[in-house]
Amino acid sequence: MSDADQSEREQIREQKRQRLRERLADEGTEESTGDAGEADTGDETPSEPVAVDGPEAFQRLVGEHDVVLVDCYADWCGPCQMMEPTIEALAGETDAAVAKVDVDAAPELAQQLGARSIPTLLVYADGEPVDRFVGAQDRATLESAITTHTN
Fold first, then answer.
1. Is 77 a catalytic residue?
2. How many structural domains compose the chain?
C-alpha cells in the first residue's frame, strides 16, 4: 500500500471520527431540547458494519446513506468468514455504510436481495442497486465499486 493510499485512508478515518463526535454532541443536545432524531441528515457513515435484520431496517439504512455495501453472509460459510476482515476494513476506511445481512436470521430479506449463493455483496448508490458480486472478492474490487459510486 502506498503512502498516498494510507494517507487518504487516514483522512477518511479522521472525517468519520469527526462526524461521529459531532453526531454524539448533537444527540446530547437533542435529548435536552426534545428534538431527538430530527437532526439526522444521513451524512454520518458508520465506521463498523451494521447488522440488518429485516426489510424495514435495510430500507432505512439504504435511504440514509449515499453508498451502501451489503454483505449477505452466514456464520457457517468459510468464504464469508474469509471476507470478514475486508468487510470490516471497508466499513472503517471508506465513505460507504456497510450492511451485514445474515441469510439464516433474515431469509426473507436475503431472498428479496437475490442472495442465492453466499457471500453475495451488493453496492447500493442513491437507494438503488448498482453492483452485485457473488463469492469471495478481493478488497480492491470492492473498493473500486464503492469509489465509483461515491459522490
1. yes
2. 2
